[in-house]
Amino acid sequence: MGYALFSQRKQVLDAELMCAQLQQTQRSNEQFCLATEQAGLKQQLSSLSASQAGELATLYEALSNTTDSDDRVSINDLIKKQELLFKQGTDDINRACYEVSIKENAIEMEVKRLDTVVTTLKDQLEAVQQAEGQGIQQAVPKFGGIS
Asked: What pTM was estimated for this model as a whole?
């Protein structure tokens, strides 16, 4: 009867352990996806900065080549509009990066919790296996020999 209880407990612990390990794998996959998303956002930010530099360089060159004050005012207005647009784009990308970072932190905490759960389940499984082994040793009949 005792062996059946050990066997049942080992099966339950094995199932819980596999479930926790599956969750770990899923969280690792989510971390990979978020890291990929973060890299993409940083690439967008880099591209936006390069684009901004090119467009503003063109406007500044046009500003330096003009002598008409009305043209200078209109070019300065264009520069300010472009800078504002780029700032909004940069802020949007930075906000998205921040949100991804928050998700990454939450998943990291979940991974640490799952690591603790897996360790606990492995310890419990080991304890059950040791108890089962001791039970088997104690159940083996011992012969003292012939007196």
From this structure: 0.73
Which residue's entry shows tokens 């906000």? 95
For every residue of 47-114, DSSP letters joined together read: HHHHHHHHHHHHHHHHHHH---HHHHHHHHHHHHHHHHHHHHHHHHHHHHHHHHHHHHHHHHHHHHHH
At residue 139, the pLDDT reads 74
Calpha distance 56→49 (Å, rounded): 10
The answer, yes or no, to whether residue 33 has pLDDT greater than 60, is yes
Kindly write down the DSSP assignment for every residue of 5-49, as one continuous string: HHHHHHHHHHHHHHHHHHHHHHHHHHHHHHHHHHHHHHHHHHHHH
Cα dihedral sign, 121-122-124-128: positive
Cα–Cα distance between 59 and 146 in angstroms, integer?
109
Contact yes or no for 125/7 (Cβ under 8 A): no
Label residue 147 by pLDDT band (50, 70, 90).
low
* Cα 147 to Cα 137: distance, rounded to the nearest angstrom: 24
pLDDT at site 1: 47
Q: Convert the pLDDT of each residue in 65-84 to its tens digit.
A: 888 888 889 989 999 999 99
